[in-house]
Amino acid sequence: MKRLLLGTSVLALALAGCSSDGDAQTTAGADRDATNAAGETLAVSTAFYPLQFAVEQIGGDLVEATSLTPPGAEAHDVELTPREVARLTEDDLIVYLSGFQPAVDQAVANVAGEQALDVEPFAELSLTGDDHGHDHGDVHRDDHRDDHGHGDEATDPHFWLDPMRYAAVAQAIGDRFAEIDQDNAQTYQSNSQDFQSRLAELDAEFTTALASCAHEDLVTSHAAFGYLADRYDLHQVGIAGLTPDMEPSAAELRDLIAHVREAGVSTVYAETLVDPALAETIAREAGVEVRMLDPLEGLTDASAGSTYFEVMRSNLDVLTAGQECS
Is the pTM of this model over 0.90? Predict the structure, then answer.
């Protein structure tokens, strides 16, 4: 596919980064030039794992997808080297979610033109949460404030934990691929529809399994599960806020422990990419179990599966046990 030339300022950044980066390959750039020299595939950089997975499912062999978030890294805190930023000018498309990763937003603003696809308009980000972890990290609708709202809110970015919001983003990705590579438009559209059908099946499984649960409160390490909770009639109580580093104060921690006891919650959920210490402390003090629930911001060796679908179905098994669903 058509390549973009490096602009003078971006080239300077790349050269400046060479002294520290050496010849090391990054997740955003490994083997890209060799693969795309003949113009056989679309070179697509994605901001983090769920976007990379969708791109791979829709693009298939016609697309080379790489991620700007390395495996095992916390997606919220990703930083980009000058070399990684410079490589973005070589892409046919950059798929990202504005407002989620400041470093990616800045890089796109600096180097990307029409080759950037922001999925935010398609994800229907209708939930907000207190980004400082107040009020137990509760997440709620824009048009509703609970009695304890502080007004210091941020938009919840974790749309992929609702399969149907994820499906809407998949549709947008397929449409953009079809515009860029019109010769293969039918393949992209067909793959997109197949992917969306699989997401609809997953949604049906969650709807059935979580239809009748003993516990409504979903106590999680950080407030990443608002869209999942909203979709399946649960109530998220995040220990931290929308980002894992927004930890509760000592007073808020005591309130959380009291809430878990009073609400009869049986499980507190830790995460694969977040230190489980707070979740374990609350569970121990409240006398309840700890289970692992994956927000799927990235995959690691500790993930309960090697794909989005495998991990989501593992999450469902964990939820049906932890929420005592029948």
Answer: no
